[in-house]
Structures are given as C-alpha cells and as structure tokens.
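Hey, can you fold this one?
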Amino acid sequence: MVSAQDGGGLTAVINAEVTIHIFQTTLAPAEFERPKYTFLVYEDVPEDSPIGTVKAREPLNSSEPIFYRISSGDLGGKFSIHPWLGTIRTRKPLDHETQPVVVLTVQAQLGSAPACSSTEVNITVLDVNDNHPAFLRTSDEIRISQTTPPGTALYLARAKDRDSGQNGLLRYSIASPQPGVFAIDRVLGLLFLNGSLGAGEHRELTLILRAEDQGVPPRAALLVLTVVIEKREHSPSWTFEHLVYQVEVSESLSPTTQILQTQAHPLGPQRAASPLRYSLEPSIDSAVFGIRPYTGWIYLQRQLDYESTQTYNFRVFAWIPEDGLLQNVSATVTVHVRDENDNSPTFLHDVLFLKVEESPIPQGVIGKITAIDMDYGRNGQLLYFLLSDGRFFKMNPNTGELINWVALDREHRGHHQMTVLVTDRGSPPRNATMAVYVSVTDINDNRPFFPQCLPGKELHVKVLEGQPVKMLVTTVFAKDPDEGNNAEVIYSVSSEDNSEHFKIDANSGEIRTTTVLSYDYRPSYRMTVIATDQGVPPLQGQAVLNIQVIPLSKGRAIMSQNIRHLVIPENLKPAKIMSLIKSPDHLQQHHNGKLHFSIVADDKNGHFEIDSSTGDLFLSKELDYETTSHYLFRVITTDHSKNLALSSTVFLSIDVEDQNDHSPSFQDEFIAISIEENVPIGTLVYVFNAKDGDGSFLNSRIQYYIESHNPGMNPFLIHPSFGTLVTVSPLDRESIPTVILTVTASDQAVNVTDRRLRSLTAQIVILDVNDHNPTFMSFPIAHVKEDVTVGSLVHHIIAHDPDEGRNGKVTYSILSGNENMAFMLDESSGLLTTTCPLDYEMKTQHILIVLALDDGTPALSSSQTLTITVLDVNDEAPVFKQHLYEASVKENQNPGEFVTRVEALDRDSGVNSKLQFEIMPGASFESFEINSDTGEVVTTTMLDREIQEVFTLRVLVRDGGFPSLSSTTTILCTVEDENDHAPEFIVSSYDIEVLENQEPESPPVLPKMRPPSQPGWKLGASTDGCGTQKSLQELESITWIGKVACQATMPRK
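Sure. Predicted structure:
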C-alpha cells in the first residue's frame, strides 16, 4: 500500500495498492546499461523528434529479443519508445512552462519472460523564447503635480514573462517619447521624474513603456501610460542641506541604531506654521531603515548583512502637513555597508575522500581543498594549513592544493588521515577544520616471492629413489604483498627445464613425482618454479629447486625397516622424537650394546641429532614449515659386536606439519571509506585484504565477515573469500549517515579452535547526493495589519532540506504575486518584510508564490503559495453622504414624526466600520432624536411654526474602532405652517381725518400709528382693499377715499 503526501502535509484520501508478482524463472532479466538516463530536449521540437535511446543487455545464455516500454511517468502521453530499438520520441508538443522535467520509467522485457528490468529516464525540457512579456494592464493613468521635484518615483511598471532564464528576464524602457523629463529604471521598471516639469496649464502626456525580454530574438510588450500634470498653488520652497547623503555603516550595528540625520530648511525668510515631517520613499532598499518623523534621524529597522547587500539607495522626503502635499522636497540617501569579519570560512564538503595510486615517484597535486568565506577583502581571504601527516603531504596555503611530495607505497601505508585548517585574515581571524582521508590504491608493483628460498639461493630438497608415483616431494608457496588480483598467485614450472618427472599443482604449490625416480638414472634435478600473480601486466617470482635423489642401500640390511616416515609439527619444542631400536634390552641382548648411530654428514642440517649409542633421535631446534616443509636424511647404524662390523642405512623422511602460528593481519586497525547514497544495490564499496604468514593452504586461507555496531542497520555484505564489500540495500544518508563495521579476517585451520582472527574497524561515510527537495515548514498563511511601518516583519518562511552542505542550503525568492513590490524576501533568512505601506481598503489579500531552492547540482526546489491577509485597522473615518441635509416637517404633528435619514460610509471593515449616530447638544436638540443604528431622525415633541420655524441640528457619526473615528453633518429642518389661527384685529378702531375740499378719490390722511405699550400688542400686517398684503410702513403712506381700511393681525407666511 502506497500513500502520497504533499509538501504541505496533506495526505491523499485514497492509497494506491501495488501488487508485486514474483516469478520462478531460470532466465535472468535483461539489464540496462545504466540505472538512470538523462536527456535534454527543447520545448519547440516538432512531434516525433528523437530524444534519446536506452539500451539493455540480454544475459549470456539467451538469444531472446528485448522489448521496451514506458511503464510510468508519461501522464500526458507526450512520449513514445520504439519497442525493440529503445529510442524515445515526442508524440505531442512539449511546454517548458507547464512541465520542465519529465521522469519516465522504462522497462525492458526479454522475449516472453515474465520478469523485466527497469531504468529511470530524466527528460529536461529546455526553454525557448516562446512567450511574450505581458503587462498587468495595457494602459494606465497617473496624476502628478507640476511642482513635483525631480527624482520622484511616479509609477512602477510590472510585466510578466512565463519563460525562464534569459528568455524571462525583462528590461524596461521608454519607447515614446524619447527619454527626457521622465526616466525609467531598466531592471525595476520604476518610472521617475528626471527633470523639472515647469509652469504651465493643466496638461496631459502619453508615455509608451516597453518591457523586453533577453531572449534571441527578443520579445516585447507595450504599456500606454497617461501622465496628467495638475496645476497646484505654489508652496513655500524647502531644500535639504545636501542633495545626496552618504554614510558608511558597519554590518554589526544592532537594530534601532541611528545612522544619519537628514534636515531640510526653507529657502528664504518664510517660516512654516507647523514643523516639518520626514518620511522615506517606499522601496525595497528603504524597507531596511526607518526615520524619526520630526527629527529626520534615519535608523536601522533590522540587522544589515554585507554579504547580501553592499549598498542601499533610497530617497527621503520632507513635507508640511498643512500644505496638502505629501512630498514637498526630497534628497537621495546612499548607505554603504562596511564588512565585518562575521562569517567563518566553510568548506564545500564536511569530509573529503581522495584516492591516489601508489607510485615510486611523488604524485604532486592530488586534490584541491576549497572553502568559501562570505566576507569581503581581508576578511574573506583564506589561507590553508595541514595540521597532520606532513611526512607525505604538503598544502599550498594560498590555493588549497594538496600535494604529495614523498612517494607513496600502499604496501607500507595504505591510508592517510589528515586535518586541514582554513583561516581568514580578519581581526580576529575565523577558521574551520575538515578531515581528509587519502586512500592509496594498489598497482601491481610487487613480484611474488618464496619465503622458503632466499634471493640468490636455491631450495634443496631430497627425495628417496624408488618411491611410488605421485609422491609428495615438497610444497612451495609464494607471497605477494599486493592486494586483490595483484596478489593472487598461480604456480608453474619453467618450460626450459623439460622435466617430465615432476608436476606442480598450480594452486597449492605441491610438487609430486610423475615417475619412479632412480638414483642411477639421474641423481639430481634442477628446476625453476614460477609464481605468477594475476595483475595487469602480471609479475613473476622464481625459486630454483634442487632435488637430490637419495639412493637406497645396496648392502644387506640388518634392520627390518630401512625407511621411516615421521610427521612433526613445526611448533614442537626440542625433545626426543623417536628411537631407531626397539628397546635398550634388545640392544643389549642382540648386539651387546655395540651399535653406533650417526647421521650422514651430508644430511646434517642442525635440526636433528642422534644419540650414537642409544639410537635416540632428538629435535635440536624448532622447525619452521614456512622455511622447510620436508626433511630427508640418512642414519648409519654400525654393529661392532661382530668381528666384521656391519652397517645399515635408515632413511628418515620427516614432513613438517604446518601449524597455525600466524594470525591474519590488516595493514591498518582503522580505515575510513566513503560511498555515495542512492547507488545501485550490489555496488562495490571496498575490497578488504588481510595477509597470513602461514604456508599451508587452509592455515593461510582467509575468510571475512562483518559485524555492524548498529544491529539491524547494516546495508552491506562482504564476500567471505574475496573480501569485497558491496551494498545489499539502498543507502540513504539522511537515515544512516555513517556505518561502523568491524571487519574480521579468520584463517581456516582444520581445527576450529586453532583458528586465528584479526579485526579492523571500518567507518563507512555515506556521501550526500542532492536527492531531496526543500520542504516548507512554515504555514502558508500570514496576517499583517495595514498600519505596520515599512520594513515590518510579515512572515518567517522556513524550508528544510535534509541534504548535507550545499545540497541542504536553502535560499528563498518570490516567484510571482508581488506585482507592486509590496514585499521583500531575504534570500538567506526567509524573513518577509513590507517595502511600502499596505492599505486594506485597496487590497485585502496578497497571494505570493514563494520558491525555496537548494544549492545542489542540479538544484532542487519547492514552491509554496503564501496567502497574506491584510488586517483592517481603524484608519478611515466615517464620511456622510451629504454635508447638509435639508428636511421639513409639518407643525402640530405628534412626537415620532419622521424628519430625515442620514447615511454615512466607512471604508474600514468589521467593527471598525460599524457606525453609531447621535445628535450633538445644541439649541432645541432635545426636540429630536436619532436612531443610533439606522440614522433616522424623528421628532420628540409637537412642533409649532409660530414658535420656531427652522431648526439646525448637528449629527455625529462614530465607528466602532479603538480609538473610534467620527465626522459630523448638518440637518436644516423647516417647520411647515398649518392654518391653525383665526384673523385678529390689532386695535378695535382708528381715528381718520379727512380734509375738506378734496378731490374725489383722494386718500384720507392716516395718522402715524404707534403700538400701544400694553402687553400683548401685536404689530401685524394688513391688506389693502385689493387683498394685497402690506406692511405697516406701507400703510402709513396710504390715504383712503371714502372708506377706512381695517387692520387685522394675521400670521405671517
């Protein structure tokens, strides 16, 4: 059962069930020549284009054809394979942007055999420039003031290109008109003012911005940008003390440290009503710094790192809030980061294994040690030193080259371990160390030699005549200090000897007779034994064997046996070994004690002595099988008991029995060797070679076995006879980085209790290969408040790569989603910070594609979709839809009469946008009430127009934020009149004087009226005879003819 889990920790709902069938077959499957194939192909190749060919070999005992097929990895059916040629071709168009790498599994089947073998085919689809750049929009508009100072950033043009490498690398330019007042940063696409706009009327300019990739041929896209230049009232002119500020800052300074003060002052005598405010231009560079808004002091918001960025360039602005201009004057700030010795040197490898052949002359440079130091100048200049093993090796201190300056002899020393120190030249210096293991590999530089026969000497062997065919004459053996095939020896006899009387076993070195030897026919033989190793080319050693044939006695023997065979172990201490007579009584009874025993002078060798009177044979000196394995000598027995002394000869044939008196031996007690992880099962790791000084076959035959120091964790197997260590299971450095083995060599003495052992400790270091993609450990969700300052930390992106060294070093980048460059991601630390102010009301969510890339070769990567939610803060005050609400209500209505409804909007969200209304205290405000939630205004009492005709109310709205924000509006409420009063005379009568002798229709003279001074008097209005309403002043000038107008107090309308 196979389960799948993605990098985010989500597991597939359904597992895959895999059934493995094991077939019984005598035919081995076909075997691919390589376990992995890698091919490259451009994405624009036509269909049916060849990509590469895989090849499998059939076993030796088969003539069946091999058939190939793609078993997995081709989900889109884009590839095909020739069934018997193994050529892979394209079937459908390829697209690098969709699938840059394809991993296929190809199987090879031998004829109709049920079993098959497989190999991995990696196809890298190379990019071609087949995608045009694309702007997020084809046109846009910006508005700027004609007083905008040069250097001001105006617009950020962002385009995308789905291609990779140079094909996707964009450069920006102004296509039309020719750059003049405006300029654009070619890399960032930042449009800025390059000169003064000058005075003039409101006008528009059209710029054509161009984004072009670096492919061959290049592709481009255009953006039409309309620049509206608005006329603004002239503001007081200000300037900074310096147009460009430059400062050098140590990278070791801690955050919040103030590094530079910028100050602006007015040009001329004018003074600002309020203090200046300072701010930094939002950008990637400025995000590292902050500024005190009232003092202009620039400070660090986070630690600087010279190794990441050496120079920062940004702009500082000074402005007056009352001007209404956010950016009144600017200056350029350049911050140079000074390097400190804050990085220790690091080696490219934690441990280094080198192999070098032994040679009679020094090999010179055998390897190069490389370390890197991210610091600069002397802080990054490195020196290399060798802390050990200076006898054979030296180190070039400047280049790190390891030099062999004394000839290496594997037979003398096969492994060298040393420690390399690297130090920088900083103050104080920083250093690091690394272990280096050098294995000296064998060459066939040693001839086999015969321990029994010293150089320039001959090996003398005696053999008794008349012995049967195939009698063992002697056993020779040769040693070769080389290893492996270079030390495997086979024996032969020189063809020049033309001897047909002896035969040698090629493997054991036993020499036996092929005919019955006769002293009379030939008393001695001289032959050359050759030992040949199996090296390339082979080397030979020789031993000259002088075989002397000993004649049998011709006289009459008095002994019952004149040939004695003895076997004596080589470790026997000097002692009596036999007696040549039956017993002392026998000697006295039959020979009157007058027998005399002696060893023939020519046969004396110093190892045996005989008592001349008793016939007791003594071993006078210990025997050594490895020097002489067989002795033949004659003992002369003379009987003096007779008148005529009689003599007889006894032939003593003594075979020295080899004893297991030599233990196997390794050249080293500890060795360190290496093997890469992911190598195929059966890969040769090392060949162990032990030597045994014994001579006979079994006593010197060695078998090997291993024992792991971590039971149950041994992925290795050793061949018991050859000492070859191979892998038997996949190696994974991330699971088992090191395996410690005890390798034991045992001889094969017949008696198990006599067997001798010798062991060494082998440390097998599993070398890392870049086989793991980085895995994101951080959550793919982040939240940030919209009012955070520029440069604030948003999220810490963490990816883990279990590989080692550079293979596990992860760097971070933003692939997409950062169109307005609102965020900056530190490639080393993974800290994501803001580079410009965020605005919840403009964009509530940012979705970034973040890439984690290791430093292996080839590099592996993973991506993560990071969703950044901008949290709302109460930064937007509610705004009424109208600054003035006009309403009317009839008088004499019951309380609760609807007056109007006020409405307000708040661009915040949540509780920050929940609004509450209230009527502010003021004249007659108690006559009305407002629903705090809906904004509906109603009366709380009955209104009377004759008492108050117009009411002015101030309504306040506040949001639910903390602290809350508010705004106000005005309600102008007019009370409408109803006919709820009857007419009423102001006075009951008038006195009118009419002059005599007036012409008809002359008006009477109306005396001027004065209101009485009694309470309740009302000075009203009157109507003339036509019903026209007149004021009292008008009535004063009216004369009446023939009648009197009456005045009544009527309510005004």
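The chain is about 0% helix and 40% strand. Let me know if you want another pass with a different chain boundary.
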